Amino acid sequence: MLPYIIGAVATLGIGALLKSSQDSTKAQYARRLDSEHSRYQQRLDRREAKIEAQKRSKILSLLLMEIKGLEKEYGNLLSMLTATDINSSMHIDISYKLEELDRLIYDKKSRLEIFTKQSLK
Amino acid sequence: MKNIITKGTVSNLPIANIGSVVTTILNHSRVMKQIETEYQYASQKMQEEYAYRTRELKSNLKAFTILANEHSKKIKYAHRERMQILEIVSTLLPQISQCGDATTKQILGDSIKQLLDNHSESLRDNTALLPSNQPNLLGRA
Description:
With about 120 residues, chain A is an all-alpha fold. Chain A is about 95% helix and about 0% strand.
């Protein structure tokens, strides 16, 4: 009878040991997967942030270029209005055009400001 | 002579238990292998997903750059066009006051108005740069 009891206890003991070893291996792999996941995620986040910054910088430069061009046009028109002796109808037309350009420049500058603020967040 | 020591027999040996231990060990080895396979599969999946997302980001940036460059060309072209219009207007404007003939004045005035309309049209034709995450960023309100 005793050998059977010893055998049964030994079997149970070995079973428990092996189960514990399996659990610990599982936990180890799970930790490894977690760490790999966080490493990949960090890399992706960094890459995404870099690309986002590149895009923002490009958009900012385009907006600046557009504003610069519009301001040049505004200055050109304004000098026409002040330098040339023109009739009232033409004066109104050009003034209207100046207002239009002014509104557009204001709009672009507002966008630039909002965008810059967003970029700095 | 009486036997003092009990003779061991086959039935006394814990064969059933030995069999059970062997089965447990074999089973353990299978389970361990399965755990490792599952880990490798999950790890590979993650790596593939990462590679896919990286490729996606790259192609997204490439598409954006192409779009941005096109937009830049468009802005430059439209600006040049409008500057040319303004140059013509600035040439025509002094001639209106110098011109004595009313019809010519009228024609010159109409031409300038037409040029100014063209200028406005060029200003309105200002399409947005459309990266997927920043819609209408450069568009007009």
